[in-house]
Amino acid sequence: MTPAAPTTSPLPLAGFRVGVTAARKVEEQIGLLERRGATCVWAPALSTNPNHVDADSLRAATLEVLSAPVDLFLATTGIGMKTWFAAAEDDGTIDALLAHLGEAEILARGPKSVGALRRRGLRELWAPESEEFDDVLEHLRGRDLTGKRIVVQEHGQSLSMVAHALRRRGADVLTVTVYRVERAEDPGPMFHLVDEIAERSVHAVTFTSAPAVAALMEAAGSTGRREDVVTAFQADVVASCVGPVTAAAFEMWGVPSIFPERSRLAAMVKQLETELPSRTDGLQLDVGGRSLLLHGEVLLVDGVEVKLSPAPLAVLHALVVNPGHVVSRRDLLAALPSGTAGTEHAVEMAVARLRAAVGTRMIQTVVKRGYRLAVTS
Known about the structure:
Blueprint: E1 17-20, H1 26-34, E2 39-42, E3 46-52, H2 55-66, E4 72-75, H3 78-91, H4 94-102, E5 105-108, H5 111-118, H6 133-140, E6 149-154, H7 160-168, E7 172-177, E8 180-183, H8 188-198, E9 204-207, H9 210-222, H10 226-235, E10 238-241, H11 244-248, H12 265-278, E11 284-287, E12 290-295, E13 298-301, E14 304-306, H13 310-320, H14 329-335, H15 344-358, E15 363-366, E16 370-373
Parallel strand pairs: 1-2, 1-9, 4-5, 4-6, 6-7, 9-10
Antiparallel strand pairs: 3-8, 11-12, 12-13, 13-14, 15-16
Helix pairs in contact: 2-3, 3-5, 8-10, 13-14, 13-15, 14-15
């Protein structure tokens, strides 16, 4: 194999494959990732028009809110508040609704809901810095809610458990369902992404909403691969979230995730730009008298990029986990991509192709045990 032209400073995400689950602003996100060298796998979790509003049900909920004084109002999302206010304008109840909510104590989950409230002349009494709804509930802990009428604006997923918890404390709770989040019309790409995650074919997956996390885990469950997906996220694949609310959706699955300090798309991509290379930057080794640098799927040997097909690349990744240690043929077989013939001959062929690409002295055969990198101590 003829090496490619010398590469001195690859883009920060060159060689990394990133799954993208967004349906909105997807061109912007993929553009940010690709300009940094990433290869993107797009699998929309939600519909491109995900927020379904039932106008009749929403009007009925608005009239119920107006039927009695509100002691406490919990605003959870900016888009939810804007959509509710717009619907109230259409049906002629906006003035009454704003005046009614203005008499209540208002708690807002985060800056977007705060912004939507203030644009309508409403002021929140308190909002958590974390932007997490759990902290709103914690703020209410210890207060006597007996007989208090509380209105909770739901986001795309039901907050019925929150309502039940508040009712147990004596409150009269009304939830206002502004919209429901719809799944993607075609689940095929999501099923494909589930397989990619389970097989560690992607290095990271991005999420911009909690419903997107729920949709992925639902797809993984329906294909029987949820356990594989959870294990992959726990071990190798980075779950990258736009903010703490999205990240919280992973907690019930025991999946670690990362999110930037500011809940913004560009900040999420910037964090990945640092996070992914940091997981492989240590893989610069002296092997067989040559310098080897593995950066995602980009391999540099003595500063020259060498292209590898999936099977030999998988073998190399397995060998560099513990440089110099013997990796058995059985373990190397398990590391090969799906679709590869499941025999030790497939391992031997992958090793042969790897040696042809990087040189025979870099990969040593240990008789009856397996293979190892010939690292220089």
